[in-house]
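Aim 2, interim progress. The first record below pairs a target sequence with its structure tokens.
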Amino acid sequence: MEIFDDIGYWSEVKLEIVRKYAAAYSRILAARREPSFHHVYIDAFAGAGTHVSRTTGQFVPGSPLNALLVEPPFREYYFIDIEQKKIEELEKLATQRPGVHVYHGDCNQLLMDEVFPHVCWRDYKRGLCLLDPYGLHLDWRIIEQAGNMRTIGMFLNFPVADINRNVPRRNPEAVQPEQVQRMNRFWGDDSWRQVAYHRVPTLFGEEDEKLENQVIAEAFRRRLTNVAGFAHVPPPMPMRNTQRAIVYYLFFAAQKPVAAHIVGDIFEKYRDRMA
């Protein structure tokens, strides 16, 4: 297993976006008085903390390292990964600053049981959470819990490339059962079927055809507000590969309008680079 992931240009842009918002977020929360907030950073698919750029071949700071370098610092950090070798690298980073907690295992369980309980509204805790799965590896319950807590601002990778690989362009009944299960888990139920397909006329009658990525992403954005309970979800940033194909959408969701406004401004600064 390679400890350090190779990342494309689009992932480097994502890291810049998250880093810029994390710096603004920490600056605002650290300055709060009466009441003062205890603000934390959560990375559920943290990796080894460092990546290798496919563009330059050089090491690139990952989101955990970027977060640790933010000034003023977060009060605590929660890093999760499922691979032992990456956990060992994260533990090396954890020695550089107090208040760093490293967890080895499935983030879906660890977030619910070990991390989110430490970010309670009544304790004046607030958190910035990065949910950046490699594919459909996230449970909707995590997203919904983050919204219900009212203490979490969240960046989320919506993995349309994985969806497109496993959900056919036509005939939703042809989706493999295991892929249906993965989609249901990520989406929260099977309502994605009604969202993803529409009926189109053909020479042989009507057939189902999958809708465009942006239609599905917009439906998910509405779901973040109407079901998960996030008050503010700006239009997501489409992240494109070198062939200009969208590999995922980067969502942001929060309870405060100022948070969505800051991220919206950051998204706009990078949108041309992803066009």
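The second target in this work package is listed in the same format:
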Amino acid sequence: MQFPVFLSLLLLTSSPTGHGLALGDPQEGAPKDAVAKAPPIDLALAKTKFDEAKRLAQADHGRLWGKSLDGPKLFVDPRTRFVVGNQADAEGKLKPEAGVFVGSLPPNIPIANTAYQWAGVHWSMLLWPMPDDKTERSIILMHESWHRIQADLGLASNDPLNAHLDTMPGRYWIQLEWRALSRALLSNHAERKTAIEDALLFRQHRRSLFKKSDLIENQLELHEGLAEYTGVKLSALPDAEQRLLLVKRFEKWPTEMKSYVRSFAYFSGPAYGLLLDETAPSWIGKIKAGDDLSLLLATAAKLKLETPSEALLKERARHYDGDKLWTSEGTREGARLKRVAAFRQILVEGPVLVLPLVKSQRSFNPSELVPLEGHGTVYPTLTLSDRWGKLEVRKASLISTDHTKVIVPAPKKVEASVLSGDGWELRLEPGWKLVKGARSGDWKIVEEKSE
């Protein structure tokens, strides 16, 4: 299944060593004049997408958030760093051409689906190409447009990983919450209230199992959940089709994603948002940092939640095929524990290479992340650039809990400035070298002048 943009690479960067295709360089085997006539981004097509975003934002007239989502946008080709803007920048870095503005993003600027300050302008940055599906394209356009005004709304850009959602009870209870939310989205008034109550009971119980999980879940739901809600809300779909879109997501994605530690907010955020629209239409004007969408919904639906008994939880879970879900999650848990043990063997117990994180830019698949308790998070696939060079990982890497280092299995091959090991390759910048690490068999990268 082709996942939407939000589940693709979060952040992409070009190689700081200059091995990537530079703006204006011809593709291998292509005539230079052909490349000059065909920029990496079709300018006419880009203009139509800018116009599409403008129409979506102007149709809202700033009503949803009290601010217009029509604003500066950049389309970026991640391979070449070629950029197309819908307006001029404040420093003259972009040049007008064919009704848009073109240029090149500097190597030190991260490329992402995000909001970013560059060349004197606060942009909504989006990776090119845009999704072919019109609805998904509309959602990502408005999602990233919301991130541009997010700080103005007083809502922080917190992006914590929720490691507890990779455990069996974490996954089990959040899926039950999603199933109840899905039922609530399609139910009439009486049935909806019961389904909402079930969702909140499952959510409350899950959070009781993991200390401070309510805080970190809320942070990501307000950051990415509200952005995705905005995307769905302003996608031009009728209200009924918005709810149906979310229901279809709940039916497919939970079983196809490897991890929920970051992606969960894209499910629950829009669902709570649409349910709040029905029960408390003015909720958006009151939302603030630190709020819990589920508590807002409980208040609006006049639900008083009490600590549920084990018998009640089991009884309500059966209304959502809880027994079958528990069995399937048990099977997954066995496989997860074996996978975690394998990652621990190669990234903690075995010989490793340690690289410091100073000013890193990274790309990864958020649906693949694996928490490694006490050590950090495993990134099975990762592209990471830092002062020391560029690391490409296609099997396993570990970013420490304090985000000060990235770890890969010890190198097997060293050729000048290129190192490689089991599923990874590192290209070093001048001034950095490989030295022995703290344990026998370990290695680390250090700056030559720092010795």
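Residues 322-349 form the longest helix (28 residues). This observation will shape the mutagenesis plan for the next reporting period.
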